[in-house]
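Is flavin mononucleotide placement plausible here? Inputs below.
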Amino acid sequence: MSVQINDKVYWVGKVDDRKVPFHRLILERGTTYNSYLLMTDKPTIIDTVDIAFGREYVDNLMKLINPEAIEYIVINHVEPDHAGALPALAAKAKKAKIVTTELGSQLLKDMFRLHHREFVIVRDGDSLDIGGKTLKFFETPYLHTGETMITYSAEDKTLFPCDIFSTHIAAGELFNDLAQGEYLEDFKVYYKLIMAPHRPYVRDMLDKISALEIEMIAPSHGYILRENAASFIGLYDDMSKDSGNNKTKKVAVVYSTMTGNTAKVAQRLVKGLEDNGIATSVFNLKSADIKEVTEVIKESDGLLAGSSTKYADMVGSVEELLKELKDIPVEGKFAAAFGSYGWSGEAIVHIENYLAEAGFKVVNQNYLVGTIGVDEQLFPLRVKFDREEGMETAEKAGDVFAELVNSN
Ligand SMILES: Cc1cc2nc3c(=O)[nH]c(=O)nc-3n(C[C@H](O)[C@H](O)[C@H](O)COP(=O)(O)O)c2cc1C
Ligand SMILES: [Fe+2]
Ligand SMILES: [Fe+2]
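Reply from A.M.:
I modeled the complex. Tokens:
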């Protein structure tokens, strides 16, 4: 089945009206996997369908085009509900180059053993001439995984944002103006589940598309939004605005250091926090009163505690402070450990243990994978000496911690 949605643009996706399991939810109303064929002089596919429908997808596509003629396959997002039919398609579309982000290419090669294929790596703002139409690409990291991007067809004034602006609904009617029932609630629920945990990145994405003329949004799940497309961008704008309670959240950052490396890590964490609107209280414990610091932690919404490692242990008076935390109420507050180290970094582990014992919600890798699907090693934050790559991670860790505190 295929449906023309624009001049030379065809929907070639799959309506899946099963109750689909997804991210520990059951999609009661099913979903669609929207794939698009742009039948230009250099025929181009934008995203594919779920891995379960690979063969059906390619058979269906072959009714419209000889796959050998396909020049480009654009992969906006590598999750197998969209890139899953890529191996089946690529096997037939032998000449096609795969267009994706740098990270996307690495993931696709590993996931689908595509090391031998030609990739076109796109960066933010790049364009691609597909013979009669011009595609523009924007990187949209963390919407909702690290490698994601969106594609814009200038001539069609159409945005192909993959998961962004999607709805999980088996929308057989395909277009929002033909929708048989209510779908706005589902559109908003989708936003809350998939996009809201990455709110700052939603703001970045909205900035990037703000200069584009958009008449149609053709996402990868649910309705193609051709009636009032702008209103859906407006909804994302509203939903991603600061949570409304304008109270500035506070985070205490405390550390012990020997030669200043852990202080540098603390500074970069603070930058990440402050860039996201958090007020910080920063203490080098060498010159701070433990009782006073404990009072500040009591008043704060979160705590980052750090130390470098010396002979497999914490340094300075950080342990003295951590012992105090047992006696203050911290339930429901986020905390995480950090530190500069040389080769093993035991101090960071000891700090994390203290934080957990005191009753904080400890942010670490398990927590981040399990709640927001972030698989980068951000917390506990371990920086080798004062290496710049570690310092960059510290800033990002500060961003993520800020977002958790802001949405707590
Ligand atoms: C005396 C001494 C002992 C150290 N012992 C350890 C250790 O057991 N494990 C480790 O990972 N790093 C160890 N280091 C490396 C430091 O943790 C590393 O230099 C760190 O960057 C220091 O950070 P700071 O300036 O914040 O104190 C040691 C360094 C010194 C000077
Ligand atoms: Fe996804
Ligand atoms: Fe998806």
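Short version: Residues 79, 81-82, 163, 220-221 surround fe (ii) ion (ligand 3) (CB under 6 Å).
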